[in-house]
Amino acid sequence: MNLLKDPFISTTEGKVSLKDILTTDNDYQLQYFFDETQLAMLQMLASLTTVVLNPKIAELKGYLANGLTPEQYDQALDKIESNWFEDDCFMQSKPAMEVKKFTAQICNLVSGIESSGTGNASGLFSEMLNVDKICPDCFHVLNYNLHMNIKGDCFGSSGATGIRGGGSLATLISGGTLKATLLANTVAVDYFTEKTQPVRGIENRFMWDKPLTGDIYSASKIGLERGLFALAYHISFQAKAESCVCDLCGIESDKSVTHFDRIKYTGSYGSTKKGRDGGAGWWLHPYTPINMKDDGVYAVCARDQHWQSWQELSSFIVGKELEKTSFVQAPIVSQFSKLNISGQHNLLIGGNIANQASIVGRIYDLYSMPASLNKHVGRLSIVVEEGVEQKSKLSAAFKPLSSKTHVGYDKNFVGGIKEQAMQRFTANAQQIIQQILLDVDRKEAAQLRREAMLALNLEAKVIFKSVQSKYQHDLPLFKALVKGEHVLYKTKA
Ligand SMILES: [Zn+2]
After folding, report:
1. What pLDDT, on a 0 to 100 scale, did the predictor assign at position 62?
2. Rounded to 5 degrees, what are φ and ψ at 375?
3. Do 361 and 399 have their domain in common?
4. Neighbours of 277 (CB within 10 A)
5. CA-based nearest residue to 16, from 36, 50, 45
């Protein structure tokens, strides 16, 4: 099987090839049971498309507007060494000498299902048996996901961290069809070069062709294609001649994969402390928003399991400068602004919420974006601002409650009441904001702001009222809550 030629992609219409998706108007839907597999698949396919088309920004614009023909795909394929995408070598480097291998069940490759030996490792699924047999085609997306998203700590001391760091968020452009999505996330080589200003001696061969060497993996030496499929482990797997229904895609296969072997790389990328301190530098991954701080560059991660993506939505799209840090949107988003393509597109924000050695949650949120991002990005920001404003009002409404600690209430107890309410607001605001943004193209900024204000203020009031009614028989607390209430009813001067 070759990933650039053969049907290995699971869709609701069965397995199809990358060429089928890119060169027909059929509206294929990916079929993978877990949304992190889906998210990884979108990134892997768009990266494969980048390798095949290798487009300049003007060419990419043409593909987005007119599509591409099967002949164009074949011509592009003829220009590259497609043998590196055979299923027995793609993203599978081999160690130079005999070293100890770690063998693990296939479920270990699905983020969210963990069996690390560390005490605080927890999976999202209680049953590891949810994934115990997969088809050989699905192995590649899991392998890709391991290298791009999973924190080394999740495998304990035998784990390594990849080029983007562990648990970093990804932002992707989502178009009306799978084809439009893949093309919108294809990297224009001239745009990427302009962003990264490559140095001399850059290496662009894949790591399973020309492995990394040394203790520090210098970002400035890693070319686009090499980085898009950067490795952190030697991986191998065996497909057994036993038929199965794949636990990832649900399609029947005459072969199955139940285990894989891994050996970690010993050097470090700039995504780790060791690499950062050693001067490796950050490799600008096209799908990863970053945080530039005084002491180096970090991938943007979800902070904890109560974090909701709407709060940072504006900075995912336009970036944000704060005192000691600047938040830079993923290159694929700034490329999208530059492409200025017409038609409705959404922003997909996804990733794992990683906490030390465990994965405690996942993000997979879609937001409507204005058709002309350059002209109307402000509409989106004001909706988010309104959310932040109502959140701070709700917080202020709890202020008199905090002052009750001096009359004998436990600080943690009182703090907990507020924290729970704030978490509820942040979570519910997620859907409200997504809903309001559905109209981002049809309504003016002032109207969007007003709708956001009304809906979010109502939500804050409902949450506050429910806390009041819960403590109505606890007079000191109830009085404090009544005292704070007016903040939510104040209108802006
Ligand atoms: Zn499968």
Report:
1. 95
2. -80, -40
3. no
4. 13
5. 45
Same domain flag for 362 and 270: yes
Please give the residue range of the domain that contains residue 141.
Answer: 9-369
Nearest to 51, CA basis, from 30, 76, 72: 76
Q: How far is the CA of 140 from the centre of ligand 1 (A)?
A: 10
Give the tens place of pLDDT for each residue, 23-61. Answer: 999 999 999 988 889 999 999 999 999 999 999 999 999
Provide the pairing of β-strand 325-328 with 345-355: unpaired
Task: For residue 342, tell me if it sits in a domain.
Answer: yes
Round to whole Å and give the CA distance between 311 and 386.
10
Q: 248 C-alpha vs ligand 1 centroid, how far in Å?
A: 5
Maximum Cα–Cα distance for the chain, whole Å? 78
Alpha carbons 354 and 163: distance in angstroms, whole number: 16
- Is residue 103 within a helix (H) or strand (E), and if so which, with residue range? strand 102-105
Query: Quick one: DSSP state of residue 47?
Result: H
294 and 323: one domain? yes
The reply to whether 378 and 336 lie within a common domain is: no
| Two tokens, residue 374 | 């350059």
Q: Is residue 3 part of a domain?
A: no
CA 143–ligand 1 middle distance (angstroms): 13
Instruction: Say how many Å lie between the CA of residue 171 and the centre of ligand 1.
Output: 25
CA 250 to ligand 1 centroid distance, Å: 6
Say whether both 147 and 249 belong to one domain: yes
**Domain stops at, among 369, 401, 435:** 369
Q: Is residue 13 part of a domain?
A: yes
Q: In this structure, are 336 and 439 located in the same domain?
A: no
For residue 372 the two structure tokens come to 């002309």
290-293 sheet: strands from edge to edge: 296-299, 290-293, 325-328, 320-321
CA atoms of 252 and 313, how far apart (whole Å): 40
Choose among 387, 380, 282: nearest CA to 337.
Answer: 380
Residues 384 and 316 in one domain: no
pTM score: 0.92
**pLDDT per position as a tens digit, 398-450:** 999 887 665 678 888 889 999 999 999 999 999 999 999 999 999 999 999 99
Say how many domains are in the chain: 2
